[in-house]
Every structure is written in structure tokens, then in C-alpha cells.
Amino acid sequence: MVWTSGKALYGDRYIIERKIDKGEGSLGVTYLALKAQNQQRVAIKTLKEEYISNSQFAWYREKFRDEALLLSLCRHPNIVQIENYFTEDELPCIVMEYVAGEDLWNIVNDRGILSEVQAVNYIRKIGEALTVVHDKGLLHRDIKPSNIMVRDTDREPVLIDFGLARGFIPDRSQQVTIGVTHGFAPPEQYVDFGTFSEATDVYALAATLYYLLTKIPPTAAFLRALNHPLKPMFQSNSEISDALHEAVMQGMEMDATKRPQSVKKWLAMLPAADPNFEATVEIKPPEKSVISSVSPQVRIPTPPTEIPQPKPVKLISARGVDYRELDKLLAAEKWKEADAVSAYKMLEVTRKQEEGWLALEDIREFPCEDLRTIDRLWVQYSRGRFGFSVQRRIYQSMGGTHDYDSEVWNKFGDAVGWRKNGEWLYYNDLDFAIDSPTGNLPWRGGLAGGVMGFGWFGLSPSDVVSRLEKCNI
């Protein structure tokens, strides 16, 4: 059922005008409506009708309601405000202020980079709004230029789309759903289990400032992890001050502990705000009013421009092993075949093809060059979801050390999808799909179930992690 113009909702309180351009996502759709009481325009977001019959409809509806609750807690002039929540024809509906304007992505994309004063003032106001979000124990997790609208009326920036927002507890590991926009999401957001803090949103806010002043999306975090550098801002904009450049670079540190640990601390690194900002900024009225859609489904969106393609992984081997077959399989996303070849190549490196297993001394002396080549191939072709380094990060985030701990190991197995309902899965039970849990692969050659007699050929995960650390993987 598509709501047409004139459709009355919630006891005739709201009258539909039209569906908003670009207001439809994979699950959600946004309408422009009139509030009957005062003829004020509002935006009404709901699920697509097709999901009523979906077996997971109750889950989608709950997540949609969660977003309404999160928004209602965060009251600030620079945060889109929620007015109401109701159900119509079994569909959950969020009534929000209608932000008539244009988002920062389109402003920069259409008219070029902003001045440092303009960009800093926008970012300061969004940063101050974020402090309200964080004070409520929430992370936005989807800060990017296209989620910051600039109102036509007062040219104020407004933070929108809380579809990925989640609660967080500092210094405690948590299970979360994955959702990233490459270039703006920090590395810790590529996994569904770990420690999250305000520094997660600091990275995205700094990345947004990077784009506003260069018109270039920052290098994606998963590519930076593969040694693809973040281009210095002054190479694209020589007018940027040293202080601002340092603030952005520090805010985008790959290691979350090296970033400013709060938005307030990061904002303090930026140049002072210009009190005459509103009077000096000229924003051309947009041709269309755009408001982003809400999708309660976990998604991995892509920015509105192409991401630079990663450089091919150098197939380096200290033992003369040929990794071209593994490269081709992973490029074709043939995950199961690649998993088997990864294990065989490890046997080939250690000259253990006939034995079919590795001893403890084999892993302790396993060449770092080969270990790194296999890892980088998995990380690159899975866009940061699979690989030894991913598995190590998850294992250690749960308290895993060089000493074996069955409780930690079981929690790790649950997180990466190797255990279900308290039972370890067999090889044929795995899905071998790109949407498998983060860290799910490689299995035969990865950390999978070392104490179970498979994966890493029955070696203890603590020994494997120790080698990964020594190889800086």
C-alpha cells in the first residue's frame, strides 16, 4: 500500500502530501505531510508495506520504535526533532520535523569546498549536539556529510538519521550490529563486537570535516589498515591551518585510544568559532528539499561517490609459495574454496602437505611475510570482515591473552558465528557468505576452534595470537 496525496493518518491528524524524493531506503520510506492542526509540514517515516508479511516484522518494528525513543531523548536545536510516534495499518510511523534544505555532501559536491571558518562552525554545532547524544549514553554511529542537513530558513546544520544509534558503556566490550559508510566509519565499526566510546563518533566527525575542506572522501578505514595512506588535507587545500589539520588527523587515528576521548576534547583542538558566521555564509537555495530516509535494517551504505580501488596485495612469500590461486578465489568471493586453499598454502609454507597438520613449532616459526599475505588478501576482498587480524582483534577485545581461557574462547566462538546455542558448529554448518558474522573466516586456517581439533590444525588460539602479535598482524 503506497500512501497517496490526501491520505489521512492517525485520526486525521496528518494528511499525506507526497513521498519525499530520495526518501526511500531498502526498508523504509519517508513522506511529506501536513499537520491538520496548524498546517505545519512534517516528515513521516515508516516501513515499507511489504515487510508486514515478513517473519521478522516484529523485530523491524521494534528497531523502528527504538529509533523514535532515541530521538525523543536527544533534544537540541541541531538535532532533528521527533514530534510523535504512532501505528497506522500495522505500520510504525515516526513523525519528525521536516528539514527543508540541503545536506552538506551535496553542498560541497555541487559548489566546492567550504572555507575553514564555514566548515568549523558547522562541525562545532554538530559536535555540541553530539555531546547531548553522548550524555544520554548513545553513539550516533553514522555521522557523515549526507546526514547533516542545512536548513533553508536559518542555515543551521541539523544532524539526522539515528537508524544506527546504539547505547554504549565505556571500557566494556559489547555486541552491536554492523553499519558503516566507507571513509567515515572508524575501524572498530567494521566488527560487531568490541569496545566503543565517544571516540567512535569523533572519528566520523573529523572525517566529515576532512571532506568539507577537500571535497574528497577520506580513505576507508579497512584500506588504511592495509597500509593505504590517508592523503594529507593540505595536498588538496593549501589554505587549511596547521592546527585544524592536526585536529583532523588526530581525530582520525586508527587506534581509538589515541583519539581525543570525547567530542568536547576534540572540539577544543579546533580554531575558535566565528561569531559572525551566519552573516557571512551564503547558501544558494536548493532546487529540491531532501530528507534522508530511515531504514531500521542494519545496512552497510556506500558514499555517493566511488571509493578509490585498493591497490593489489603484493603476493609475498618467504618460502616461494604461489598465492595467485587464493587471490583469484577471494576476488570471486568463493569463500569456501578460498578457506580450503588458505589451509593448504599454510601446509605448503611449512612443508607439511603430507602430514596435513602443523605442530606448535611450525606456527611459532611461521614466516610473517606469508601470514601477512594471506591476511591482507582476506581483509581486502571481504572489505574488512574476514582475516587473521580481524579474528585477533575480536579475540583480544573479549579479554583473550596468551593464556588459554575456555570462557573467553567460547564467547569468541559465539561472536564470530562458530558456536550456536552453546554448541560448536561443524565445517559444513558454516554459511561461507559475505554476510556471515565478522571474523567468521578463514576457518580451517584461522582461529576456528583450536581446542576442538580443527582450525589452525588443533593449535591453541593463544599460540596463534602470539604469532600474529609478533608479526604485527
What's the structural blueprint in terms of helices and strands?
Blueprint: E1 8-9, E2 14-24, E3 28-35, E4 40-47, H1 57-73, E5 82-88, E6 91-97, E7 101-103, H2 104-111, H3 116-135, E8 138-139, E9 148-151, E10 157-159, E11 166-167, E12 173-175, E13 193-195, H4 198-214, H5 221-224, H6 242-251, H7 263-267, H8 277-280, H9 324-331, H10 335-349, H11 360-364, H12 368-381, H13 388-397, H14 406-416, E14 419-420, E15 423-424, H15 461-470
Antiparallel strand pairs: 1-2, 2-3, 3-4, 4-6, 5-6, 7-9, 8-11, 9-10, 12-13, 14-15
Helix pairs in contact: 3-4, 4-6, 9-10, 9-12
Overview of the structural elements:
- The chain is α+β, with helices and mostly antiparallel strands.
- 33% of the residues lie in helices and 14% in strands.
- Helix 3 packs antiparallel against helix 4 (198-214), helix 4 (198-214) crosses helix 6 and helix 9 (324-331) packs parallel to helix 12.
- The model is unreliable at 165-178, 279-307 and 447-456 (pLDDT under 50).
In brief, what are we looking at here?
With 473 residues, the protein is an alpha+beta fold. Helix content is 33%, strand content 14%.
